[in-house]
């Protein structure tokens, strides 16, 4: 049961981080300071998403196979997010900014 609570907490944290990123880049009221804060928090999330599994594997908290699976999952998720911004980030007729 503790594993499920941890998984839900981590998922919630990721969702909150993405929400702050979207709000920081989308709201025109908050100028450059909010955008810089969103970039800073996102960088911390991405660094810890790749760094913590390696630290845990070196400390033998998790197995190296689990570390590889987590890093692969992180790579897929962050690549998907990056692909979304590459595809929909242009200022043409088909843009995510119109939503």
Task: Give an account of the 3D structure.
This protein is elongated. The chain contains 3 helices and no strands. Helix 1 (2-26) packs antiparallel against helix 2 and helix 2 runs antiparallel to helix 3. The N and C termini lie far apart (39 Å). It has helices at 2-26, 32-58, 64-88.
Q: What is the gist of this entry?
A:
By secondary structure, the protein is mostly helical. It has helices spanning 2-26, 32-58, 64-88.
Write the layout of secondary structure elements.
Blueprint: H1 2-26, H2 32-58, H3 64-88
Helix pairs in contact: 1-2, 2-3
Beta-strand content estimate:
under 5%
Arithmetic mean pLDDT: 79
Span between termini: 39 Å
Low confidence ranges: none
What's the story with the biggest beta sheet? Answer: none
Global outline: elongated
* Tally of DSSP helical segments: 3
SS-based class: mainly alpha
What's the order of the H and E elements?
Answer: HHH
Estimated helix fraction: over 70%
User: What is the CA-atom radius of gyration, in angstroms?
Assistant: 16 Å
Number of strands: 0
Key features?
99 residues, mainly alpha, 0% strand, elongated
